[in-house]
Amino acid sequence: MRYLSLWAASASVTAVVVGMNPVLARSGARAAARAVQSEAMTAAADVQDAEGKSLGTAELTETPHGVLLTVKLSGLPAGQHALHLHEVGQCAAPDFKSAGGHYNPGSASHGYKNPKGAHEGDLPNVHVGADGALNADAFAEGVTLNAGATSLFDEDGTAVVVHAGPDDYATDPAGDAGDRIACGVVEKKEGARGQGPGPRAASGNRGQFLRDQG
Predict the structure, then answer these.
(1) pTM of the entire structure?
(2) Is residue 150 helix, strand or coil?
(3) CA-CA distance, 200 to 202, in Å (whole number)?
(4) What percent of the chain has pLDDT over 90?
(5) Cα(192)–Cα(78) distance, rounded to whole angstroms?
(6) CATH top-level class for 41-212?
């Protein structure tokens, strides 16, 4: 009993020291963050043009607040283009209409400027440089790669679609963005693991542009 009491007292002192030491506390927080990140569900889409040529990939990563998209493509027309998540995981060329409309489990109207918007699949416009390259990050708030009401892996799946023109962020059903010029089916990466229940659907804009290097 004496040794047990000494061990308990030692453990208590260690806990107090860690709690009072900001360096140790930050170190523990970083380790926990790395552990969560390593468990994050990931997915990817091989984005192809109307002729079936691969233009690159869209990588999707689960976060506590939604899904982060990292898009790296080449061979696109220069200028502004709409980028959306569509409600069906099919990309039948050449028009890609098989991908259906925008991913919209909340039955909202289209567009960030629409008082009744936006779709969960709405994302900000992206810029393609003169060299045809697109390197951009975008954030789809409130959706998830895990199971749930806003899962991108529902029974129909989802697709990443690039349009010929920019989204005006207001016009139903697709922001007057023009033809679909590239499409990729979102698929889980081999060995990807989930990290528990998906995020709750959030109000306000559900897609947020983070970075565009095009």
Answers:
(1) 0.72
(2) coil
(3) 6
(4) 57
(5) 34
(6) mainly beta
